[in-house]
Amino acid sequence: MQKLKVSQVAKMVGASVATVYRRISNCETLKNHLSREKGCLFLDEEGYEVLKKSFQKEDLQTGNPEAEYLKKIIEQQQGMIQDLMARQAEERKRSDTIIMKLSNDLGTVRTMLEEAKKPIPLLSEPPKPVEVW
């Protein structure tokens, strides 16, 4: 008969070592299948099968309709969150584009105003002297 360490059993069952120890301490039928050598706790094959069945019963109990309904709601809400995040990213990109265009237009208007402030030379050459009569 093969003996398995509790850590090996935990890996095979897919649970933590602490969970396996807790299940062993709570289950009276497993106590007959335990042996301790050099401070290490071992479980025989029959004990492993009993423990495995107890974990399978737990998995079957979690398949209730309420849990399935809640999982569907969570999936829908996660999809909605993804859609909203994508929409928000598009709107941010659009607003950034508008801000860039307006800041560019502002720079253009500033240069136009600076040029408008400069005095306009009315005469390109000095006036000719006028003869006095």
Highlighted features:
3-stranded antiparallel β-sheet, 9% strand, rod-shaped, 2 domains, 3 strands, mainly alpha, Multidrug-efflux Transporter Regulator, Chain: A, Domain 2, 133 residues
Write the layout of secondary structure elements.
Layout: E1 3-5, H1 6-13, H2 17-26, E2 34-37, E3 40-44, H3 45-61, H4 65-117
Antiparallel strand pairs: 1-3, 2-3
Overall pLDDT score:
85
**Measured distance between first and last alpha carbons:** 141 Å
Structural class: mainly alpha
Largest sheet: 3 strands, antiparallel
CATH architecture of the largest domain: Orthogonal Bundle
Q: What is the H/E order?
A: EHHEEHH
Outline type: rod-shaped
Binned, the helix content reads 55-70%
CATH topology descriptor of the largest domain: Multidrug-efflux Transporter Regulator, Chain: A, Domain 2
CATH class of the largest domain: Mainly Alpha
Number of helices: 4
Work out the count of structural domains: 2
Number of beta-strand segments: 3
Query: Could you give the order of strands across the largest sheet?
Result: 1-3-2
Radius of gyration (CA) equals 41 Å
- Fraction of residues in β-strands: 5-15%
Poorly predicted segments: none
Explain how this protein is built.
The protein has helices spanning 6-13, 17-26, 45-61, 65-117; strands at residues 3-5, 34-37, 40-44. It has 133 residues and is mostly helical. It folds into 2 domains: 3-61, Orthogonal Bundle (Multidrug-efflux Transporter Regulator, Chain: A, Domain 2), CATH 1.10.1660; 65-115. Strands 1-3-2 form a 3-stranded antiparallel beta sheet. β2 (34-37) and β3 (40-44) form a beta hairpin. α1 (6-13) crosses α2. The protein is rod-shaped and about 140 Å long.
